[in-house]
Backbone:
């Protein structure tokens, strides 16, 4: 790594009174851009600037939500740790080179922080060689004194299942004193980050809280929606509703007494079941780590039902239910920090915007599903693309062939090839179960499943009242021919930058190119997954050209066998000529959205030079790009240097209402301008301005949503 990263923070302090006011002004909801993301490559959670976890599916990305207050302020469930005093300043940042999130609260009386993360083991870990599926929240005071309020109100199974609460009280606290590990910790990364926590102080002590809150949800029988598939692994993950517990460990230094922390039952207005609350005061040198997880008893019970013996269950407990101590918690955090540091060190990028690139890489890594190598499009579902009743609310907790290919392209160009290899294994799996016609679905579950039935949850009001709340995705059976170009472009780059294709992988590629040659002239639903009629979308045709072109390049560079190579060349040239003839609006001089809608602009055609369909200096492309850069009221798609994918008010996409500018399209415009700057250097300056402004639209920790509205607020599923 060439230079240290300066962790991005908000340009100005966020006042907690302002955060409260924002919740009130937005009907009890935080703005989407007020969240950071944590995760463990199996699931993820959104942590608000006010210390509230308002979204988390558990234990997998596509499992039922346990917390989803972001979709219903009253019923959704949340886990908040925040100071009692609201007259303070809030800041949030990632610890350097990591996905460990720190939310800091500053006031005249004291400074405290909440550090949120999910465990990731590092190779050679001193503490634990297996991933602990735990949500961990460490609260501490760095200066002075602060009183914190804790509320933990889970809402299991998308707030459909009631639960019972049992607070188990051991009645005995065993204090723990520093061990040899603590005295050796001076050189640890933990000590370098938490300098205010003196592990070597003689009076340091800690203890495991005597209480344990156990939340036990009822088992509901659903007869439709997610989980009702023919894929057993999908069924297990998508219907997983497990009992969970909340424990805590207390630590303190100095000669004073350790803080008193008590969990108290409290009813929740949703009526789903009691939660727990706590009010505790910490002074400098004191901290509490709260740990939420699936109860080990429920796992052991399931193992026994599956036929596991006592020895297997004992091994499970040894691995995943270790004895708690503050020393162990410190090691888990240290291992997590070192895991992320070790991973991002492989990033080969050293150009401009280094900090932003590395942060984006770390977030993309969080969106990968470790067991299969699939990439989830977003960790959330049903965050609206427009505020109102447009109905543009979708579930993105699946792997789109297109989005995953873009992600693999980014990883490979950054030198992060291990992820590319894992994804290629996933691609090989889905290629072995193609559609009856030889094609692929546009999306799959994270385990390669093909079924994701769409279901509306009418009991949830939606973010800021924007119903409906959907789980599953009805677009899974759409025909979108562009996916073949995006996928085969990524495969071509994998062969070039990562690992040479094997013969078996080539056979899969060859079959896909043959499929494109047979079907390129068919109408489809396009990259934007319109729910209107099928059309011959220009972008789809361009990507069909890319698919055949990359197949031909592999034949030429690797001498792979291909008896239909002459046909491939004819089809590639036919597609090119067809696009130039049928997609070109000769009257207004731009490439149109589709052959049928020549009067409609589509920002997707900005990808033309990015995939080498044409050069960035091609006169036709330059005219199209300049048209897109006009404001909507003058026939363009750009407002305030933000690009809309198309004019939603004038385009029949099967939906109603407006939507925000599309983040991906704005980045495409910046790159297209840079490629076009060979003919006009001023375009390069314009590209840099757009890039800088788009980075500005990222939130305080550098995360981007799917869309940005006219006022600069984030819309759509988050982060992407």
Residues:
């Amino acid at each position: 790594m060439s230079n240290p990263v300066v962790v991005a923070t908000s340009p100005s302090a966020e006042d907690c009174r302002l955060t409260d006011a924002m919740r009130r002004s937005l009907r009890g909801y935080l703005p989407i851009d007020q969240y950071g993301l944590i995760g463990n490559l199996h699931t993820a959670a959104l942590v608000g600037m006010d210390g509230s976890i308002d979204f988390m599916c558990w234990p997998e990305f596509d499992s039922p939500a346990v917390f989803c207050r972001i979709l219903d302020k009253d019923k959704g469930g949340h886990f908040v740790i925040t100071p009692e005093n609201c007259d303070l300043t809030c800041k949030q940042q990632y610890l350097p080179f990591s996905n460990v999130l720190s939310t800091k609260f500053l006031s005249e009386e004291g400074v405290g922080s909440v550090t949120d993360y999910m465990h990731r083991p590092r190779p050679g870990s001193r503490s634990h060689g297996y991933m602990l599926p735990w949500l961990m929240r460490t609260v501490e005071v760095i200066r002075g004194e602060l009183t914190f309020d804790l509320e933990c109100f889970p809402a299991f199974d998308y707030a459909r299942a009631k639960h019972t609460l049992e607070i188990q009280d051991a009645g005995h606290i065993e204090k723990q004193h520093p061990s040899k590990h603590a005295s050796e910790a001076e050189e640890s990364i933990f000590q370098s980050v938490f300098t205010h926590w003196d592990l070597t102080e003689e009076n340091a002590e800690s203890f495991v809280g005597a209480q344990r809150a156990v939340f036990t949800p009822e088992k509901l029988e659903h007869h439709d929606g997610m989980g009702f598939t023919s894929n057993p692994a999908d069924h297990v993950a998508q219907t997983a509703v497990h009992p969970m517990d909340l424990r805590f460990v207390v630590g303190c230094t100095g000669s004073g007494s350790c803080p008193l922390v008590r969990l108290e039952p409290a009813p929740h207005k949703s009526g789903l079941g009691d939660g727990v609350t706590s009010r505790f005061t910490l002074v400098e040198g004191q901290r509490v780590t709260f740990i939420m997880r699936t109860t080990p008893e429920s796992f052991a019970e399931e193992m026994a039902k599956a036929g596991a013996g006592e020895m297997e269950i004992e091994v499970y407990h040894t691995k995943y239910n270790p004895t708690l101590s503050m020393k162990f918690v410190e090691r888990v955090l240290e291992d997590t920090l070192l895991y992320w540091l070790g991973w991002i060190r492989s990033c080969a990028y050293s150009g401009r915007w280094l900090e932003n690139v590395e942060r984006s890489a770390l977030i993309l890594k969080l969106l990968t599903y470790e067991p299969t190598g699939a990439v989830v499009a977003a960790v959330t579902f049903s965050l609206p693309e427009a505020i109102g009743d447009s109905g543009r609310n979708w579930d993105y907790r699946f792997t789109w062939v297109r989005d995953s290919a873009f992600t693999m392209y980014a990883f490979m160009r950054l030198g992060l090839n291990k992820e590319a290899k894992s994804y290629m294994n996933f691609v090989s799996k889905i290629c072995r179960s193609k559609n009856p016609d030889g094609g692929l679905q546009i999306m799959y579950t994270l385990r390669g499943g093909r079924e994701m039935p769409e279901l509306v949850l009418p009991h949830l009001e939606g973010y800021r009242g924007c119903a409906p709340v959907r789980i599953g995705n009805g677009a899974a059976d759409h025909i979108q021919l562009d996916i073949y170009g995006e996928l085969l472009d990524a495969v071509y780059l994998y062969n070039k930058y990562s690992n040479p294709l094997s013969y078996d992988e080539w056979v899969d590629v060859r079959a896909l190119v043959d499929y494109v040659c047979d079907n390129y002239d068919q109408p489809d639903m396009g990259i934007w997954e319109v729910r209107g009629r099928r059309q011959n979308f220009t972008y789809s045709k361009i990507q069909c050209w890319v698919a055949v072109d990359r197949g031909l390049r592999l034949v030429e560079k690797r001498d792979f066998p291909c008896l239909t190579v002459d046909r491939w060349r004819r089809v590639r040239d036919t597609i090119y000529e067809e696009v130039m003839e049928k997609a070109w609006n000769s009257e207004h001089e731009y490439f149109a959205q589709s052959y049928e809608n020549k009067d409609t602009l589509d920002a997707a055609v900005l990808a033309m030079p990015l995939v080498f369909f044409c050069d960035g200096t091609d006169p036709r492309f330059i005219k199209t790009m300049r048209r897109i850069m006009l404001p909507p009221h003058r026939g363009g798609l750009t407002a305030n240097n933000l690009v809309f994918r198309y004019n939603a008010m004038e385009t029949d996409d099967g939906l109603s209402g407006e939507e925000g500018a599309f983040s991906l399209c704005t980045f495409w415009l910046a790159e297209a301008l840079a490629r076009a700057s060979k003919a006009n250097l001023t375009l390069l300056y314009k590209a840099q301005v757009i890039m800088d402004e788009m980075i500005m639209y990222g939130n305080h920790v550098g995360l981007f949503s799917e869309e940005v509205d006219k006022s600069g607020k984030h819309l759509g599923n988050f982060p992407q």
Notes: Confidence is low (pLDDT under 50) at residues 1-15, 178-186. Residues 705 and 719 are 5 Å apart (CA to CA).
